[in-house]
Amino acid sequence: MSTEIKGLYRKLGAIQAEIMGLQADKSGNGYKYLAGTKLLKAIKPLMVEYGILLKQEVLDVVNTRMDYLVSMKEDKQTGKWSGKPKSEILTSAKLKFTWVDIESGEKDENLFHANGQNDWEKGLGSALTYGERYFLMKYFHLDTSEDDVDNVDRKERGRGALLEKVEKKFFDLTDEKKALTLKYYKVSSITELDFDQLTQLNAKLV
Q1: pTM (2 decimals)?
Q2: Residue 57: DSSP 8-state
Q3: Are residues 171 and 98 in the same domain?
Q4: Is beta strand 107-118 parallel, antiparallel or unpaired with respect to 31-33?
Q5: Are both 129 and 170 inside the same structural domain?
């Protein structure tokens, strides 16, 4: 354990200074993000070195059933879309993260909130995993812009890969289905669709 630095906040400041260079290293759905394993691999040895613990507590959990359709298909006769029903659990968790200096007992408590949607038994696990990663990234001011679901640049970069995928599926449709699809979205070409519309269409096209 390092004895050169005293005080919880000085130790946390030292950790922040050493992990400033972490960069997004994983790709998914057309964007990059900082993997939780890489983040923990960088931070945990420093926590051990400086004698710091991070305690995670679940203060409240709200589970909401989410029902939606997958594998969307169009009925040739009616022109209506249908799909296979799927249910998941959206877990909203109120969390508390507490930094503890083992040497002095000094603490720093932080309330945090995280959501996770997954299969019935995995909703809370998803929320806890997401919450831990984002708490650490926000606490140490690591760049999360690439990983932000509302990031406009991320959507635009991801749109290119998504458009290519949709175009391949769209090419295999009959001329009638192509015309109906374009009419539905009120465009003359699928290249005019935005990221969210392409995401929706990609789910419909099997």
Answers
A1: 0.60
A2: E
A3: no
A4: unpaired
A5: no
Burial 125-159 (b: 16+ CB within 10 A, else e): ebbbebbbbbbbbebbebeeebbeeeeeebbebbb
Contact yes or no for 59/65 (Cβ under 8 A): no
- The band of 189, judged by pLDDT with boundaries at 50, 70 and 90, is confident
Q: Indicate whether 172 and 71 sit together in one domain.
A: no
Report the alpha-carbon distance of residue 165 to residue 176 in Å, rounded.
20
Residues 89 and 181 in one domain: no
CA dist 127 → 124, 131, 136, 151 (Å): 5, 6, 14, 20
Contacts of 155 (CB under 8 A, 6+ apart): 195
- C-alpha span between 125 and 122 (Å, rounded): 5
**What is the reported pLDDT for 36?**
57
> Residue 171's domain spans which residues?
152-206
